[in-house]
Design goal:
This protein is mainly α. The chain is 51% helix and 0% strand. The protein is built from four helices and no strands. Helix 2 packs across helix 3. The chain is elongated and about 70 Å long.
């Protein structure tokens, strides 16, 4: 008769270490929000660049880490800085 194998859940310490090691959209958004709130002169675009530079993350991999709310904030900053055209769907064509 083969021995019985019991599967146990991962310990909390290992779970926490795993979460700290790997960055997901929620954690990335938290880190960017923290940077923006701690530094009044940083907008969201600059905060993403600074965070990626500090943590050696390639900017090309950032789109996978963006949450919907963070995308909206980046879009707003881009429009304020005239990097994107302002879009208003409520405009009537003349």
């Amino acid at each position: 008769m083969p021995p019985t194998i019991y599967l146990t859940p991962m310990p909390n310490e290992l779970d926490e270490a795993f979460q700290k090691k790997f960055l997901g959209p929620a954690k990335f958004a938290q880190e960017i929000e923290k940077l923006v709130h701690e530094n009044d002169d940083l907008n969201y675009i600059d905060a993403v660049v600074v965070f990626c530079d500090k943590n050696k993350i390639e900017l090309e991999s950032v789109p996978k880490l963006l949450s919907k709310p963070l995308k909206e904030k980046l879009k707003y900053d881009a429009m304020e800085l005239n990097f994107l055209k302002r879009s208003s769907r409520a405009k009537l064509p003349l």
